[in-house]
Each structure stands twice: as structure tokens, then as C-alpha cells.
Amino acid sequence: MTLLCFARHLSLRHGVLALSMLMPTLGQADAIRQTKGNFEDKFRQLDETLPTANTWRNAAGQPGHEYWQQKVDYRISAVLDEANRRLTGTQGVSYLNNSPDTLTYLWLQLDQNIFRTDSMAEMSDDFGGVGRRGPAVEAGSASTPARLSLEELRRQQTMADVPMGYEISGVVDSSGSPLDFTIVGTLMRIDLPEPLRSGQSTQFNLDFAFNIVEEDAVSARSGYEHFPDDAREGGNDIFLMAQWFPRLAAYTDYEGWTNKEFLGRGEFTLEFGDYEVEMTVPADHIVSSTGVLNNPAQVLTEEQRARLSAAETAARPVFIVTPDEALENEREASSDTKTWRFSAQNVRDFAWATSRKFIWDAKGYQQGGDVRPFVMAMSFFPKEGEPLWSTYSTESVIHTLEVYSRFSFDYPYPTAQSVNGPVGGMEYPMITFNGPRTTLQDDGSRTYSLAEKQFLIGVVIHEIGHTYFPMIVNSDERQWTWMDEGLNSYLDGVAGREWDPDIPWGVEPADITDYMRSQDQVPIMTQSDSISRLGPNAYSKPAAALNILRETIMGRELFDFAFKQYANLWMFKRPTPADFFRTMEEASGVDLDWFWRGWFYSTDHVDIALQRVYEMRLDTENPDIDYDRRRQEDAAKPGSLFVQRNVEAGMRTWVERNPEVRDFYDDNDRFTVTNKDRNAYNAFLEDLEVWEREALDRAIAEDKNYYVLEFANVGGLVMPIILGITYEDASTEDIYIPAEIWRRSPDSVRKLVVTDKQVASIVVDPYWETADVDIENNYYPRRLIPSRVEAFKSEGAGGLTGRDLMQDIKTELKTEEETAEDAAEDAGDTQ
Amino acid sequence: MSRRAARRKFLLAACVLPGVLWLGSVNEADAHQQQAALTRVLFNGRSGNVEVMHRFLVHDAEHAVRQLLDPEADIIASAPAREQFAQYVIERFSLLGLEGNTLPLEYVGQEIDGIFLWVYQEMPIPVQLNGLSIIHNALRDLWPEQNNLVNIERDGMVQTLNFTGTVEWQSVTFE
Prior knowledge:
Mean pLDDT of chain A: 89
Largest sheet of chain A: 7 strands, mixed
Oligomer: heterodimer
Order of helices and strands of chain B: EEEEHHEEEEEEEE
Mean pLDDT of chain B: 80
Strand order of the largest sheet of chain A: 7-10-3-2-16-20-18
Helix content of chain B: 10-25%
Strand content of chain B: 35-45%
Shape of chain A: elongated
Number of helices of chain A: 23
Number of strands of chain B: 12
Structural class of chain B: mainly beta
């Protein structure tokens, strides 16, 4: 029984899009696409794609009941030779084998070896190639010469003049017996005298030394920066020490030894452990470090210690070393040394910074809770960072802790630090390196632009955010950049918007549409060293995807609960992508396999087009009602143009010229109701079951509007369809259609929408929340969307953002007389 | 980590034209400085123009202007600083016909929208254009990791060129 029939068929102005875009490539068959038919299973579960669950990582995305990870404790003593920019150290390592396996050797990471002229990174450098770290070069072509930058020359000269990389010696076991070791590029294998069985631990010692790279010269994540213009003759340095000691490579359940050569892009895969570190530096240096300072009485003045105590409860950051004191320190160097001693528990790495240039401020963060009720937030920066740093750095650290902890767990460490140096932004446990500086003016003051302020707050949030992901939720950076950068970019957007929503932060879905529609892409699920465009691929796209999950697909409550589960389950553990995907599903009860498949495993983009809208009215089946409606519809159609032109020409028809000749059909049109029709209607009513009759009567009484909307999935990525409907009375309504509408027909679907009021217009994705790349095909009726150039030309230069506000604000207000004079002059000009 | 480039100046290597300096200048990048710009080349049938829309992150642009032109530039507050940046960009972006003839783009303007600075150019759609060659060196002379993605959008289809590393110019053909 058909109750609906098409009364009007409203086709949109634009035709159906080329079908070729929607067709799968013939001949490629897999579990998703078959050789028979065009169906593509966009909702196929990820069963074959994700690794099989086991006792170490279960199918719910949790650490399994036999989850294990190694534990590595370090005791390091290091001496900085400031004049020669050289670090020497000796370290003792205690390695606990929690794995079920017996180990016959250990692998260490010798990251400093990447700076050797014979390193794989250096020797495999594609001159001027894609994604290269380091100074600029350009390969030549038939018509253009190759180009080297002066900096590249400096880099090569530096590496030639000063031997870089580790000098390793004294590798001995706990009894002092030498251990065999083999250096393989940025890795070192130590052969154990006895197999190390599950549950056993072993100890060894080694000595190391290396010449510290000039960060600017080689584009490292650490190194020194020289300030030649300081008052002290010869200038001063800031030393940022990271990847500075031989670190144990991780041994994991999913990859065994993570001994993939360090090529510069894929960052680090590390084990948790406890550290006791002492560093001997010039006596006038201030040291910032992972961990807690154990000997403040030996290295800090009484006044500095008193200021630290005051900072614990201060409302605003307190200077431990004031700008004036730092300036005084800069003037001359001490020939004495001091040894700073730090300890850190349960950290995956250890970094520090030292300089006599450091201004130091601190403010206590009363976190509350049982885990770490009090955290000391601190910043270390030279005068070149003032006054920006003392205003915002430490405050940004605390803001980050407040926001991130709400989405994950209480910050577990005693300190959180932001250090200014030559590195633009880099993270380590409890300590981050951040680059923003201020501008020295002719009058001796230092100022900063709004963009630099945003840079400072943004980069501190981002890098302190990394102390959660991946410093605590210890994902494998060498393999998956997105697991820390994507998650962290999502959260830094959350924290930024809570800092000041008037400053633009984070990644909006609309920001990534041009990248997502581009033809040259790799999926997010690509190993770090193989990604061609790291920024959009590993930062922006996953951040936007998580935003969309939270705001559009799961909702904040479910997303936040699941994300917090993930963070807490994997705190101080090592998650893989599958663990994240599984936990988000398990904790929310939302099937997200289609989302992971589309956003993380494919290069599809979102483009949902509203192709057609069919407007319908319910037939009553009562001929006395329906036939008259048909008559009206017929009358509403345009008449024959032929007949109309005849009338306009004054032609009189035969019927008009012979009015006396009439019959039945002149008085009864084809919509005339007869009793035969009424009898059929009555018989139809008689046949209806009681419930059918009730449904029909109610529907007729309500007389709603029925619309069938036809959508095409142009981009390939299945997504929810969000409709913004405007009715003829100007009221509006939003309708959410889950992505699952596409499950059996991923290219094209229809949706029935029943409304009380007549629809005037419909738009898909009215709030630009799904990263739909083509807005123009989202509208019924079609709307012409001006390009940015068209809009710019019609609206002028950028509206209010185009003003030179800082200049304009100096303008003096004119008096009435002056205004009148201007008007008179203008009038004169036009005459 | 965030990504950062060191200070750089270019010079020509000795292989072809020894000793000729190609000067860039100094600066640094950061966490948000993704060293990735994006350009749409849109064949807009409605306006009859090829519209070129360059998108840069605001403080990428500020750092570039500071390195190249004015160490104190404030790109958000200063329209002249933005204009300087726009000029820098359009001097490093070219559209050419497949025969190598330069197509004369006109500068339209620049504006800030959120975290992005946009620079606009346009020209009438040439008749009988069977393809385009593109050069896009903006910021690549400052930061070697700079990546300029160009989407050429014509008749509803997108073709993409990626300018990074050694790439000097690339072409697309139209059917």
C-alpha cells in the first residue's frame, strides 16, 4: 500500500556529479572492495587491521593482565667544560628485565652520533630532498645551479672541525670487567656476559663524552646558543642538554628492541626509570633540570632559597634570580664550579639546561588531590626573553597543568619548567625548551608583538602538554608521530581556548579541508620517517579528527570519558595506536571503526553533497480531497506556450466561436470525482485494519510536510550528515543523521524528513564542523559561495582585522571645528 | 617536539655559477610553525578569473618579515608589514603556461583571518590553456623544511603540486 506519492519534484540547479569519482578502481579486490559490484564496506570492522589482542594488550585497548615493560635506572655524573663546549660523563645503569624473554644483549641509543659525518642520517641525506632537517640547500637542475646556504657550509665545517658524536669508553659490568660492545650508527649493543632472564636485573657502567653542537649550526633538539654581544668578553652561552647520555633503547612486546636508526624525524622510544644525576657547571650558572634539586644549600644562596619558599604560595611568579641579578651574572664568569644534584622518579628521559644568563621565576601550583598536591612551576630565560617571559611563561605552565589534568590525570611530577634557548619548542619530563624572544628597541626597552605573545603562550602550552603525551602516556614516537603530536595538538587547542578565546587557537575542521582534498597524501597511520608533510599529517589532521569526534560524533561527555580512560589506562605505560582506537570505542560504546578507517587509514576527504530534495504531501486516498489537489497542481503548471501565443495573437478557437455546442466533458474535467471512485475509497477504508485506519486518520489530520533528501558522498569519507533547516516562517532546526546511514550505500543515500512547517532552505554542515571541503554543494536551494578573492574584493581589506590598530590608536580626535573644516575642504574638492 | 629551522643565508654552489650569493636571512620556527603553507589556484568560472589564494600561519609570516625586511615587524598590528610579506610572496610565486610564458597575475590584497594570513592574486582565465607550470619558493628560501602545497582547482577537479626540498617548478596539464 503506497500512501505517499510525489506531488512535486524539486530538482536542484546542478546535476548529478560525475559518477566516475564514486566508482572503485576495477580489479582491486580486498575485504572492503570486491570485484563484483561497487559496494565498498566503509564500516567494516578493523579486525584484520589491528594486531591480535594478547595477554599484554587486550582487545579492550587496555594493558593486558600480563602487561610488562622494562625498568632502567640511571646514576650519572656529568661535567660541563664551558670553554670547550664539551660534556663528559660517567653513568651507571641498572636494567630490570620484566619481559618474559631472555636477553643476551642490550641496545642503547647514541643520539649524538647523528651529528657524525658518517652517520646514516648524514650519509643518506637527499641533498635538498623532502623533509630534510637542517640548513637550506637546493639541488641544481639543467638550467639552475645547486645552492648551499652559508649555514649549511657552517654545519659541514663545524662537523669537519669539531669531532661530533659520542666517545664511549669504560664499558664494564658491576664487577668492573669489560663488556663487549658494538656501535651501529646511532645505536650501541652491549653483549651481556650471562643471559639476562625474565625478572633478573643487570648493572653496567660506561663513560661518555661529546662535543656539544651549536644548535643553530646543526638544527638539533639541543645544544648551545652563543650570545656574542653580552658584556662579558667573548660573550655567554645557553646550554640545552638533551639526548645527552646513552639511553637504553626500549624493548617492547610489539617490536622487540626498538633499535631503528635515529634519522632525525622520528623521535624517541624510551623506558621509564629512576635517575640520580649530578652536573658540575661554572659556579655562576643556574641549572634547570628534570627532577628535584637535592642540594639547594650548596648551589643556591640563602636569599634564593627564601624566594623559592615564598614562591610556593605566591599569587604571581616570584623571581628567584631577578633580571638585574642575571644581567650582573652575564658580565663576568666564575672560574669556580658547583655541582648540582637532581633526582627524578619514574621518568622516561632526563634533560637539563644551564647558563649564567638565566633569569629564574617560580610559582607554586596547588594541584590538590593525593597524587601530587603541590607542583612548582618555573621558567628560566635570558634578558632576550623579557618582558614576555616573566609575564606569561610560568602562568602558561600552570594553566596547562590545570586543563590537561582535567582531561587526563593529576600531574604526577614535582616540577614543571619552561626554559628559553635556541630550540623553538621541545619537550622532556618536567622540562621544556621554548624559543620565543623579544625585540630590543633603540631606547633600550624590549617589546614583543601580539604574534610573538601568541607564540609564547601557545608553545609553552604545547610543550608542557607533551609532558603528559608522550612523557607520561609513553607512546612510541619513533613509529607514530601523531600519537603524541596529534593528541597534544588537540589538547593544546582546548587549553588555548580556555586561556583567551579571543585569540585564535587550535585547529578548526575548516582549516584542514584544503590539505584533505589535495591529491598528494599519505594516511595518518604512516611511520614517522616516511611522512611527507608532517605538519598537516601528524599535527593538524589528527587534531581536527579528535575535535570532530568530541564535538560532533561522540559528544563531549562520551569523548572526554573515553579519552580520560585512555590516559589513565596508559599512564606510565606504552600504548600503541590500536590501544587508543580500542579504548575510545570500548569506553564510549560508540562504534568508531569506520572513523579510524576513514580518517587514520585512508586519504579520503569529506564532501557530502545535497543532490536533490523531493517535497511530498500525504495522499488521503479520499477522491473528494485528492482529485481536487491534483486539479490545483495541474492548474499551477504553466500552460502551453503555443496556446498562449495563439491567444496573444487574437486567435479565437472553434469552441469560442461555437459556444452553443457543449457536452458533458465541457463541464466535467478529468479530475471529476464519481461514485465509482467514492465506492473504491470506502472499500479501501473498509479493508484497513484498525491500527492502519488510526494511522491514516492521524496523518491526514496532521497533514505534515514530507521531504526526501538525496545525498552524495563525493569525498569518500563517511561522516554524519548535519542538517540546518530554515522554515518558511524563518524558524530553524538542526537535524543530526549518524554516519551509519552510509553503511550499505556509501556513495549515495536518501533521508525522509517530516516537518510541521514548510521548508524554505536546507544546508548540510551549517557550522562547518565536519571538514566538508566543498560548501557550495551543501545548499538547497543551491547558493553561490564567493571565493575568498571575490569576498575580499567585495568587502574590502579584511574588515576590522586589516586595521593598523597600534598606529591608528595614536590618532588624535578632531575638534568640531576641524571636522567642519575637513567637510568644507571635501566639498571644495568635489566642486 | 615542535619543528624549527636555524638561521640561513643561501649562496650558489660552485657547480655552475661560482661565488654568486643568494641572500636569505635569519629566523626560527616553533611548535605552531608547521612550515607548511597552502595555496589554492582556483579557475573561477563565475568571475572569469584564475584566483590565487595563499595561506600562511600568521607568525610564520611575521618571522619571515622579521628575517628579511624588518626585525621589529608586527604583522598583526601593521598593515605595511603584511604588505611587505605579500610582496615577498608574490615575488616568489609564478604561474606559467606550458610553453614557459609567464602569466601576468595581479596582486589583489592580503588579510588576516584567525591564525592565517591570506595573500590574494588573480588574472583573467587565459584562453586555450592546456596546462600550468608553477613556481612557489615563498619561505622555502628561509626554512628548508618549508612545504608549499598547491591545489589547482578547475572544473570541479583538484590537482596537487607539492613544493618542498629540491623542487623548483612543477606542471599540471588539463584535458
